[in-house]
Amino acid sequence: MRRANGGAILLALLLLWLVGWPLLVTLGEALEAPRWTLRHFAEFAERPEEWRALWASVWISLATVGLAAGIGVPLAFLFERAEFPGRRVLGALVALPVVLPPLVGVIAFLFLYGESGFVARGIQALFRRDESPWRLSGPTAVLLVHAYTMYVYFYLFTRAGLSRLDGSLLEAAQALGASRRRVVTRVVLPLLRPVLTAAALLTFMTSLASFSAPYVFGGGFRVMTTQIVASKLNGDLPMAMVETVTLAVVALIGLFLLQRSEAGRVVTGGGRGIAPARRRLGRSRWIVAAFGWLLAAILLLPHATLVLVSLVPRSTWTVEILPPVLNLSNYAAVLSEPERLRPLVNSLWMAVVATAGALVLGFAAARFAVRGRARLGGVLETLLSIPWALPGTVFAVALSTTFSVHAPWIGRFVLVGTAAILPLGYLVRNLPLTGRAAFAGFRQLDPAIDEAAASLGAGRWRRMWRVDLPLLAPALAAGASLAFLTALGDFVISIVLYTYETRPISIEILSSLRLQETGVAAAYGVVLAALSAVAFFLWNRPTEAVRPPG
Amino acid sequence: MDVPLGSGGAGEGKLSPDSEPPFLVLEHLDKRFGATHVTQDVSLSVARSEILALLGPSGSGKTTVLRTVAGFETPDSGRVVADGEDVTDVPPERRRFGVVFQNYALFPHMTVGENVAFALESRGVKKKEVREAVARALASVDLSGFESRPVTQISGGQQQRVALARALAPEPRILLLDEPLSNLDPSLRGRTRRELKRIIRSIGITTLFVTHEQEEAFELGDRVALLNGGRLEQVGTPRELYAAPATRFAASFIGRSSVLPATWQKSTGRARLPGGAAWPAIAPWDLLDGSPVDVIVRPEALSFGGPRDGAALEGRVTDVRYAGKETYFSVALADGAELEVLAAPDAAQPGWKVFVAPLPAGPAPRAYPRESAG
User: Fold this and answer.
1) Does ipTM come in above 0.85?
2) Cβ within 8 Å of residue A61, ≥6 positions away
């Protein structure tokens, strides 16, 4: 088939401008281009607090991987391999945090376990103490929140891996005399290694990029993301650039090392045969069920707390363990007062625009690369996935640097302070989500389908509208829903690039918390969570899968 | 070695069975994928309304030839000419060739009717005419009334017929079929093959189809083009390919046969086998006296006999495969070579010592130079 290289080149240039150029500009600023000096890097190296932040980012991320795996993997085994009452419902509930924006999880945690949260108040009352028994801040708090919000990656990946395992492999091991434990260590876990590595990679990268938890709970404890924003807010722009470049390099090294650990490993056997049957438990199933319910309750309690706090009117809850008054006044305020409604509207339109843009770019890139077999296919795919490898803060700073100067001849325009910069930031951050969905969709599509349409006289556009888009709709919808959720709940990009006029929900939650309007903050959190859940289930609602015939 | 092609050999220009100019011509098609030379100098002609089978083992380049004709691959060199028009650089959507894919490539999100209507709608044909054409196309494949059925909910055989109806609905100039029956159960294949032949014949469309099964090629094809390693080995009628294979590959790929090493005796036209027996053989090449050859012989050309003449080879029956009226006997010769003989079921039993000689009236063994083994 003919190669559409002209379009692919244009698209590659556009992606280069959106993704690659801001990073290069940031590097240039860090090196004080055009003087090209390492002065700021030397300054960075001399400051102990910079090293502390860098080290904190790395060890917090590694510890998060360990903790998240410690919760997620056993949970996945429990729900995938054992049969007990309530397994299906609980299994779905436990995965719920994946659809919620990180900031919502963070404030939910704050309301439950924070120093004036329910648990602290309960203990205070129980032991008749005047002060809160703990202060939820510093690395322990950050780690707790990370483990709580990121165990879902291990849980979902491991469950998916277990469900795809070929049951005959386990039976073969048993027939060869292997004990149950040996089957797990010698067969199941090695076969699960690719999914466990993928989950570890996702958790590590998410933790390295995490901003909400260290920002809200960090206190004096700084990681690189909060350090960058602090430097920027303090006006130390060159240092912010150096920190951004350093964080980007650490992220790329992490990505490289983790990917290399799996390179060359070929694990076959997954995806064939029948999944192993679940173990039917005897009387112990009630104990397991109770344990499962308890675990689910612990994991979901913060969100229940969020709902409860959202019903507490302002200044009605002081020293009591439980709030004395509950009503919908916070929701009424959020949904009726124009100034409070504005962040909701902002978040919605910006998320829609960013998702649509990212969807179009991802689809076009995948079509050129996979269908058109364009020579630039590899470049397009790499450009689309770069924003995934780099923390959101890096892109936020890169975009704010690049688009605060008017130099159209080198692709720099003043967008900072306008309504365009936040959707653009969300779009860039969404590119990997829509791009990966589109690439995966196109790769799963039988090329003969397109050839059949061509042989039946359909031109390029007709093939796209009548064949590609309908068949790719589920994949694109899945990618779009994730992109929309990410943009809707974004905090990292927003805190660097927002203006008062374009402030999104996340920024409004933070300012409500600062103004001691916890109920309003919680109401925003619940609305955000509800919108996210609706978007997720609307776009991912179970439809009859379009399977190839035969 | 240059291959001197005899009657029905590869590469000959006048491949059409009659004097009418060929409808589809492939001229010196060459295609590489990286370092792999997938098709090498393939030239073919197909007459109007003729059915030509492209036969060959996996990796022989037959599908690449078909895809090049369809326009999905662009040849590195060579031309594709249809009805006098050079279509080499014409995109597939403008060639007006119907294609039936190996896995049918039916649009899974459309009904049977929508699939069949797709090409006509692409051309902007009016709705009423589309409806009528779809009904006609489905009737021609015995699927009347199937318009609103989802293609995912019909049987494999029905899907195959929908794919055919979809390809034929826009009345293409040429029909291309890529292993059209390979996705069907063996029990369905024979019936569907006859059905397919009936439909193609009734329309009279020029057809090129790819298969790796000799039975399929022989039953459907007016002529068969045999490919091996990207090269055309031989083009001819099924009878020509079976009775007069032009190359050693053609002789061993088509039908059952045994291969025996021998030495060519030019003066007598015989091949001397190890053990001293000399068999009369046909050599499609001009072979040098004393040159090493492979003698290829069909099981039905051999019989059991006594050690009375110089042509008999001594061996022992190692295996018996019953095939109805006659039986295939595997015979191991003293030098380790193996032969297959078709004879009456009670002609021998495993373990028996036997003498094997060519039947005077049977298809003569053929001798090919050893170097051409492939």
Assistant:
1) no
2) A203, A204, A207, A208, A254
| Encoded tokens for A345 | 């509207």
Output the pLDDT for position A277: 65
Render pLDDT for A499-537 as a digit per residue (tens, 0 to 9): 999 999 999 999 998 888 989 999 999 999 888 888 877
**A41 contacts: CB under 8 Å, gap ≥ 6:** A30, A31, A242
Cα separation, A478 vs A472, in Å, equals 10
Q: Which of A372, A68, A59 is nearest to A221 (CA)?
A: A59
* Neighbour-count burial of B131, counting CB atoms closer than 10 A to its CB (0-12 exposed, 13-18 middle, 19+ buried): middle
Q: How many whole angstroms separate alpha carbon A389 and alpha carbon A251? A: 7
Spatial contact of B268 and B331, defined as CB atoms under 8 Å apart: no
pLDDT tens per residue across span B29-43: 999 998 899 999 999
Euclidean distance between CA atoms B133 and B125, whole angstroms: 10
Cα angle B324, B326, B332 (rounded to 5 degrees) comes to 125
Q: Which residues pair with A517 in a beta bridge?
A: none
**Rounded Cα gap, residues B42 and B30, in angstroms:** 7
Out of A446, A455, A546, whose CB is closest to B103? Answer: A446
Element (H, E) at B239: helix B238-243
Q: What is the pLDDT of residues A54-74, one digit of tens each?
A: 999 999 999 999 999 999 999
Residue A355 CA to residue A429 CA, distance in Å, equals 10
Least confident of A93-102, A121-130, B158-167, B246-255: A93-102
Size of interface A-B (CB pairs under 8 A): 92
Please indicate if any CB of chain B lies within 8 Å of the CB of A456.
yes
- Which 8-state DSSP code applies to residue A273? S
A467 touches chain B (CB under 8 A): yes
Q: Are A1 and B92 an interchain contact pair (Cβ–Cβ within 8 Å)?
A: yes
Helix axes A102-113, A284-310, angle to 10 degrees: 100
Per-residue pLDDT tens digits for B253-265: 999 999 999 999 9
Closest chain A residue to B177, measured at CA = A452
Work out the minimum CA distance from B366 to partner chain A, whole angstroms: 42
The Cα B339–Cα B319 span in angstroms is 11
Contact A483, A433 (CB under 8 A): yes
Q: Taking residues A97-116, what's their average pLDDT?
A: 82
DSSP element (H, E) containing B39: strand B36-46
Output the CA torsion A388→A394→A400→A402 (10° steps): -80
Question: What pLDDT sits at residue A266?
Answer: 47
Cβ pair A390, A251 in contact under 8 A: yes
Measured CA distances, A353 to A334, A423, A512 (Å):
23, 7, 26
Question: How far is residue B200's CA from residue A471's CA, in Å, rounded to a whole number?
Answer: 31
Candidate from B103, B119, B176 with C-beta closest to A550: B103
Cα–Cα dist A243/A138, whole Å: 21
Separation CA A341–CA B156 (nearest Å): 56
- Do B42 and B66 contact (CB within 8 A), yes or no? no
Rg (CA), chain A: 25
**Residues A246, A58 contacting (CB under 8 angstroms):** no
Tell me how crowded residue A144 is: count the other CB atoms within 10 A of its CB: 16
pLDDT at A482: 86
Contacts of A546 in chain B (CB under 8 A): 108-109, 152
Q: How far apart are the first and last CA of chain A?
A: 26
Judged against a pLDDT cut of 80, whether residue A4 lies above it is answered with no
pLDDT band at B371 (very low <50, low <70, confident <90, very high): low
Q: Which residues pair with B330 in a beta bridge?
A: B319, B340
Closest CB to A550: pick one of B97, B119, B183.
Answer: B183
Cβ-based neighbours of A187, under 8 Å, separated by 6 or more: A169, A170, A173, A178
